[in-house]
UniProtKB/TrEMBL annotation:
Leader sequence segment: none
InterPro entries found in the cross-reference section: Homeodomain-like_sf (IPR009057), RD_transcriptional_regulator (IPR051839), Transposase_8 (IPR002514), WH-like_DNA-bd_sf (IPR036388)
Segments forming a coiled coil: 73-100
Organism: Streptomyces formicae
Region span, Disordered: 104-123
The organism's taxonomic lineage, starting at the top: Bacteria, Bacillati, Actinomycetota, Actinomycetes, Kitasatosporales
Pfam families per record: HTH_Tnp_1
Listed PANTHER family: PROTEIN DISTAL ANTENNA
Entry protein name: Transposase
Length: 123
């Protein structure tokens, strides 16, 4: 029956895509939290930023200044990211080389006359 499908509601995703904020806004927001001493939630509301986003920025800024332990600095995060990419590339290269080992040519015999057919010297 064609009319049965019309009563169903279409499902819409309730998770929003993560917003990206300009670096200038991030720096200004972090500076505002540190200079005013206001709670992060209040500063975030004034700036129109989600409070958890601002909280993460503040924590990262503290780690970069050496004020927070247990969190990597931005430079360390970039280094880890680069090393992980390099590790993936090296693993891929190793897999390629392992595959080539399986199809390599047979080894030559050290006994005269026992090598491959093209290796024999004319008698």
């Amino acid at each position: 029956m064609p009319g049965l499908r019309s009563w169903r509601r279409r499902t819409i995703s309730t998770t929003a895509a993560p917003r990206t904020y300009p670096d200038e806004l991030r720096e200004r927001a972090v500076r505002a939290v540190h200079t005013t001493g206001r709670p992060i939630a209040h500063a975030a509301k004034d700036l129109g930023i989600h409070k958890e986003a601002l909280r993460g920025w503040v924590r990262q800024a503290e780690a970069d200044r050496g004020e927070r332990d247990g969190r990597l600095t931005t430079a360390e995060r970039e280094e880890v990211k680069q090393l992980r990419q390099e590790n993936v590339e090296l693993k891929r290269a190793n897999e390629i080389l392992k595959g080539r080992q399986c199809v390599s040519l047979p080894r030559r015999s050290t006994v005269p006359g026992r090598g491959r057919a093209g290796d024999r010297s004319p008698a």
